[in-house]
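Support case: user asked for a sample of complex input and structure output to validate their parser. Sending the pair below.
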Amino acid sequence: MAMRTKATWVAAMLALAVPSAASVVKVDGELYVKAKNTRVMESSLPTANVVTVLQPGEVVTWKGADPKDKRWHQVNTKSGKRGFVFQSNLSTTAPNMELVVDDKSKASRKVNPAGFVASGAAVKALSPGAVEYGNKKGGNHQRAVGQLQGLERVAKDVTPATIAEHVKEAGLFPVVGASATAKSSTKSPAPASKSKGGT
Amino acid sequence: MRAGWKTAAIAGLGLWASGCKGLDMSKVAGGVDTVMGTTAATKQQREACKKFNVEPTVTEEYAIGSAMAIHWVQGGGGLMPAADTAQAAATVHGIHQYLNVVGKNLAAQSARPTLEWTFGIINDREHFNAVSSPGGYVFVTRRMLADLDNEAQLAGVLAHEIAHVVLKHSIQQYNAAKVDLCQATVTAEGFIPGSGQFIVTGGSSGNLDLDGDPALLGNLAEKALGIFEKGNDHAQEFAADQMAVKLMMSAGYDPAEYRALLAKTQDSSSIGSRHPKKAERVKRITAFLGTVKDASGEFSELSLEGLSSPPLAPALVAAVRGPGSGVAKDGR
């Protein structure tokens, strides 16, 4: 049987392990960035500038919550920058960093967290074996293959900028940043006052 | 959620008949060419099959997840179709895009932010359900969407399925299928199409090149789905519930809507009998939320401040509840 693999799929596992149980982190302890384009701000004010943008898996030192708004946390980055990060962007446990890259090579390669955002080669589509399996089954399976491939194109077109725009309109938390660079990234306003005060 | 959606795909369980990498398993034992023939040897070889209960590679996970996703879409009557007119097609495209915006925002805050997540609407107008498969495929039925009250509830549905993927619950079913197929192959002592590569190249790692053997991929996907039909056990559902609530809060959604969502589900089901009762699930979520508080001097990932329940996109509401949708709001 011909192996109709269109590209060599290489799984590049970053040196970040499976998440462990949440641990207690105190001031000067280390936290992990968990969302794409995490913005480090000059302050917790809505008008603050972006100091730098971090990516999942990067480590920061926690300096405590902002007394003015405890959902914002002061951090120091590994590159020596200081600023404030929204609570949901930080975690006590490292995220998994799984990439499948289309680099025509069977050799695994490691990618550092900062390089993740630049991994435009990161690909996932319906796997070649699954496509062959579904098409051979024919009928509705074959139709499902075609529909899923179309759906994946829709999903692929949803960018962090699209997400950030929706979050802003819906009054949700500004976790995923629109841009991977500080220059073009601006802070989203504080969530709209739709708070139900928790549950 | 999750179990309780019977797919026609499952009816086709069985070994893929057209594989070309089959092997006479009577001459293969755990990757070496030991000749079988004794009960003791068979027992030893069946025991050796447990080596396949290992963490899959990402590529392997994508392959099995892709095959399972094909089954979910096929069994659910396809994805919500693009209608005849260009305007209707644009609407369906738009609500799929909306679903992916909401889903990918949540997934980006999960412990697997670098998976390429894909969210879709299954055309099933009867079952109130959502399913997922490894590699980041999440599907919601059209019927379920019709019954949601707001975006926070949609987020709850998607977050629950994201949690199953993050926690690799279906991988446990896949691994069980791998071990089962290996043991069946050993016992059969005969030609099993599509399973030669399974044993030979499985080697000591227990990982498989599924894309190199679509017949084997099909076998395993169908077996895993057969196991899936029994539903996730209580511990898996409770874990997915708790992670879902965490993801909702991380994104800014009010977790009270998750409890409202659970209230819409039904306890009784002909399948998925291992699912816990919703009253117990609600009780555990309430208990978890009671533990969320700021600890002085310690970092807290979650807060109950500023949470909200934004409305659903009007286009989605109109598409799933509008004339011709065939969905009665209270027809569950």
